[in-house]
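Below is one such protein, fold included:
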Amino acid sequence: MAALDRDRTLAYAPLAGALLGLRPLPPLTTDAMAASLEVTFAPPHERTPRLERAAADLQRLLAATGAVVLPYPDALLPNGKIRPGVVVVEQGQGPTEELAIHHLTSLYRNPLVLLLDEPAPPALDAGPQPSLDAIVSTLAWNLTHIPIHVEDGAWTVCTMNGAVLRATQAELGHFVRDALVPKLAGQVAPPRRDVVAIREGAFAPLDLPDAAALARDVMDAGATWAASGLMLAHTSLDTLTYRDRYARRLVSSYLDRRTGMSYGFLLRQLPTAVRPAVPLEEAPAAVRDALAARPLARAGETGWARVPMAGIDWAVEVPDVWVVSTRSGCKKTEVDPATDLVRLGLAAGQVVLETPAGVPAAHARPSYDTMVMMAHAVGNALVAGLQQALAPDAAPLADALAGPGLSSSHWHGYPPPGVAPEGYAVFGADNPPVSCSTPQSAVYALVGKLAAFEASLAAGRPYAGDLHVEPHHGTNLTGTLTLAEGAAWAATHDPASLVAAPAAEVVTPHAA
């Protein structure tokens, strides 16, 4: 993790875990992730010199990180299925019935890696959208999560996030430890149904007090994202090629019955009343007692967090937070406010999704980034309370959260290092590159926000928001800018933008 985050991880991570319901905390460092892994190599489907060499190298390098490499028979349950939690490496393209996915007890408990003796598809270098489509096609045909294209002297790894990562033979040790291990420690998966309470038809987007302004902001932002080419389009399952109808059903099941995969989100955090934080020693006795042995507690009807910052333990009220977000699967560049917006909240510790009336539940699934959204929203509320106490004369984020609210945009691109809108802090670029939907990604969002605010405070800089870089995944721009302003900023500053640079200079934003 970056020095900024590493210094505060022990202080902030337990609070992040408690706020987001992550018990126990997931491993947050690369070493801890590696130590948590059990990996097995399935009987090879193909044997070629390149594949044999790659499998031997991968097994040796994973063991060197501290991962446990199991003989295949030791990874099996008595019924012959692969034990949940074990990473499975397959070698070569095999017959459909022999693929590892047919030997699992759950689609979400075993990350699958596939070594392929073939060059990476040319489309990976043809721009963001062709690259993404090529990756998803490979995943669907091979029923795997992480394909590795093996060539003489180099590997190309693709992920469901759309990342394309290349390493030479000399770089493989570093690459396996610092790039591959974080992706194996947490599998891309939709939010579990026991984590998100879904209230179908409970949200009427056009009945919000500022519905017209919100709708205009979302649509204006979408038009700018469309012009810049940064917000990738939906990849429909109907456009992919499958081995058979059962494979098609498996892919649909894995995606929680979605019609395809879409990337990015736009959200507006609704105005929230936040009171200034108070030093813990000055808090009411009930609050002091409740927070004495834990970072998060309730005193009466109010949630409280204990946040160590600027040398003081602060008691910060934790309000319910709500956002209006584009629904998972919709086209973010052409949003219909009546049907493409959902309301998400973190209320009394429960994540809630409210869908618009008339939109089938199958078309309003929780986003893969749901927990990151909630981490940013509750983190904004904590920062606002701390900002009112520690910098009341310059509290742009707290002022905006009180009304009209904040915005957040996520896209699969990266502005130049250190570049951000005025008053926005930057964090996350050196975090382990975990996939979206992992608990680590949510913890990094909340921990990084608190640490970034603390650093801005120490430097005497105003804090209006933050640019959260998720390596090999994308960027979250969160704060006082409207969605339209954020889209315009990205179009000007992201080097992959078709607005900011001629096509010949476009850099694929998925590259490592």
